[in-house]
Amino acid sequence: MKSVVTLVASALLASVAQAQVVQWDIAKRHVGPRFAKRQDGTFTEVITNEKTRGGYFASCQVGTPGQNLTLQLDTGSSDIWVPSSSASVCDQDSQNSGCTFGSFDESASSTFSVVGENEFTISYVDGSHSKGDYVADTFEIGGATLNNMTMGLGLSTDIPYGLVGVGYALNEAIIANTQSASSAYDNLPVLMQKQGLIATNAYSLWLNDLDANTGSILFGGIDTEKYQGELTRINIYKDSQTNAFSSFIVALTSLQASSSSGTDTLTSSELPVPVVLDSGTTFSYLPTDIAEQMWQEVGAAYYTQLGLALLPCSMENSDGHFSFGFGGSGGPVINVTMDELVLPLTDEPQQFPSGPYEGQDICQFGVQNFSSSPYLLGDTFLRSAYVVYDLVNNEIGLAPTDFNATGSNVVAFPSEGAQIPSASAAPNQAEVTQTSGSLSQPTYGASGGFQNHDAESAASLLPPAFDWSRIAVMGASMCFVMVGSGFFLLI
Ligand SMILES: *[C@@H]1O[C@H](CO)[C@@H](O)[C@H](O)[C@H]1NC(C)=O
Ligand SMILES: *[C@@H]1O[C@H](CO)[C@@H](O)[C@H](O)[C@H]1NC(C)=O
Ligand SMILES: *[C@@H]1O[C@H](CO)[C@@H](O)[C@H](O)[C@H]1NC(C)=O
Ligand SMILES: *[C@@H]1O[C@H](CO)[C@@H](O)[C@H](O)[C@H]1NC(C)=O
Ligand SMILES: *[C@@H]1O[C@H](CO)[C@@H](O)[C@H](O)[C@H]1NC(C)=O
Q1: Please, what sign has the CA dihedral across residues 121, 117, 159, 29?
Q2: C-alpha closest to that of 340 among 418, 290, 427, 400
Q3: Rounded CA separation 306/460 (Å)
Q4: How far is CA 8 from CA 16, 54, 177, 316, 346, in A?
Q5: Ligand 1 pocket, mutate which of 68, 85, 105, 145 (most atoms under 8 A from CB)
Q6: Ligand 3 contact, 212 CB (< 6 A)
Q7: Is 339 a catalytic residue?
Q8: Is the minimum distance from the CB of 115 to ligand 2 under 6 angstroms?
Q9: Are the beta carbons of 423 and 207 closer than 8 angstroms?
Q10: Overall pTM surpassing 0.90 (yes/no)
Q11: How far apart are CA 107 and CA 104, in angstroms?
């Protein structure tokens, strides 16, 4: 059974640390450490899909002797940080289950040192934050041990678990805080490369499907058995404010809806849409105009009270899919099927009280809307793709995922700066420029097939009359993109 998600109105404005977070059903967690070491200079860390939170967590050890912590993997930020055992968020009481994913007791580590007192402070797009010292200590992940790893120590935070940010060093919180690129330190993938564990700063992410519990991140290589067809390389774009590569912005250049009844091309006045590929975000967020077209195709309706587009849970069985195209014509296309796009709203199923979906269980749609950038393709998109992040050549490799693949054929990047193995470049990327796309309504020829009936006007649905007292909010959706590096526009 897929569990709970959020009732938080605008996912973005909600703090992750609201009481919701501490109401996780921890008995449902499967966060046991599962290390898999490779022989050939690559390291795999098996990550666990926390469906109640939607995030992907990895088991790590910090300090000497190693203390076990389960940390969330985040491509949308660039610092590792761990909650200190002395942080109040880790206090356990009747309402608060504390830091059940582990916390770090710095006094119990013989290799711990403070490298920047009070210098660590990070805020995420969803309003959550962490503050404390920059420290250095031993850090172990996926069988790889890094000495003297710089990390944030969360002494004051509203998030009861830490994160492993694997983005560009230029997106470290210290740079936003000091406004100086020279304060960059070697973050996890950089240090792995410098300490010789991997040849180049690159890694591959395979999240697997919504019903599977684990995916993996492979540092320093690709696994050719985890995707279908060929990998295609597309450009990462610079942050327009800093004119530097600091987050994984790529160009979404087309979006189609297909079902048994037809295919529609969806449009946005913002095409090509700059989107950040962010594993730390549960849902995906596109410009309102194109998101509304997706909702219309699937019969989802936007409820102002919740700030969310909702649809019947049975739509997960719809045979329709959306095709996300990147990097211009001939670029990679990722199909996302409906069973990846329909997520539960509450832990106790609630039914539509009236309208055409009366009596059906309510779910939320995996693509929601933002009114301005950064637009995000989070886990609801990423699960359908195999994504290779090459931080040296500033390219992303994309291919359709192979769900539940059991085979493995790891190919390591041979040297620093080597291009993504077995991948060809998208042929027409030069044509991708910042243009104002034109918005026109599709004919919605595909919607009949998605909804398996003559499309009703979803807009006429009445808001469900929630009985708030019966709804246990088990977790908020997360949006772990660091705030502070400016807006993103294609340049
Ligand atoms: C930490 O995890 C390792 C690896 O699974 C395990 O062997 C060890 O017992 C754990 N240590 C503690 C203190 O939980
Ligand atoms: C550890 O890292 C810090 C910060 O990067 C650096 O200043 C220090 O020299 C390093 N210490 C050792 C022993 O490598
Ligand atoms: C993958 O495995 C999960 C869990 O066994 C299963 O529920 C799901 O349907 C599988 N997905 C595919 C695409 O085969
Ligand atoms: C993705 O969907 C498109 C449109 O329906 C289809 O032509 C294409 O073959 C699909 N690709 C894959 C890999 O399934
Ligand atoms: C999302 O779309 C709805 C209606 O389609 C609109 O009312 C709302 O303001 C939009 N939200 C954001 C954050 O743009």
Answers
A1: positive
A2: 400
A3: 16
A4: 10, 14, 29, 22, 11
A5: 68
A6: yes
A7: no
A8: yes
A9: no
A10: no
A11: 9
With a 6 Å cutoff on the Cβ, whether 339 touches ligand 3 is: no
Instruction: Judge if the beta carbon of residue 289 lies within 6 A of ligand 5.
Output: no
Find the 116 Cα to ligand 1 centroid distance in Å.
29
Predicted confidence band of residue 390 (pLDDT cuts 50, 70, 90):
very high
Identity of the amino acid at 439:
L
211 catalytically annotated = no
User: What are residue 282's phi and psi, to 5 degrees?
Assistant: -70, -45
Angle at Cα 243 formed by Cα 242 and Cα 248, nearest 5°?
Answer: 90
| Closest CA to ligand 4's atom 3 | 323
- Condensed to tens digits (0 to 9), the pLDDT of residues 471-487 reads 333 233 455 555 544 33
Alpha carbons within 13 angstroms on the beta-carbon side of residue 444 total: 19
pLDDT at 350: 78
Count other C-beta atoms under 10 Å from residue 336's C-beta. 22
Question: d(Cα 490, Cα 250) in Å, to the nearest integer?
Answer: 9
> Residue 307 to residues 61, 236, 346, 370, 467: CA-CA distances in angstroms?
39, 31, 15, 10, 17
Among 95, 58, 94, 96, CA closest to 74: 58
Across the chain, what does the average pLDDT equal? 79
What's the gap in Å between 192 CA and the centre of ligand 2? 15
Phi, psi of 92 (to 5 degrees): -100, 130
Position 305: which residue type? Q
Q: Which residues of 178-198 are buried (b: 16+ CB within 10 A; e: fewer)?
A: eeeeeebbbbbbbbbbeeebb
State the catalytic residue, choosing from 126, 137, 278, 379. 278
Q: Which of the listed residues 148, 149, 174, 183 should we mutate to test ligand 2's pocket, taking the one with most ligand atoms within 8 A of CB?
A: 148
Select the CATH number that applies to the domain covering 229-387+424-486 from these four: 2.40.50.140, 3.30.450.40, 3.20.20.70, 2.40.70.10.
2.40.70.10
The set of protein residues with a Cβ atom below 6 angstroms from ligand 1 is: 33, 68
pLDDT of residue 46: 46
Question: In the chain, where does the domain assigned CATH 2.40.70.10 lie?
Answer: 18-198, 229-387+424-486
**Residue to mutate (ligand 4; options 254, 261, 318, 323; most atoms within 8 A of CB):** 323
CA of 336 to the centre of ligand 4 (A): 10
CATH for 18-198 (2.170.120.30, 3.40.50.720, 3.50.50.60, 2.40.70.10): 2.40.70.10
pLDDT in tens, 65-92: 999 998 888 888 899 999 999 999 899 8
Q: Distance between CA 227 and CA 231 in Å, rounded?
A: 8
**pLDDT exceeds cutoff 70 at 53:** no
Residue nearest to atom 7 of ligand 5 (CA): 304
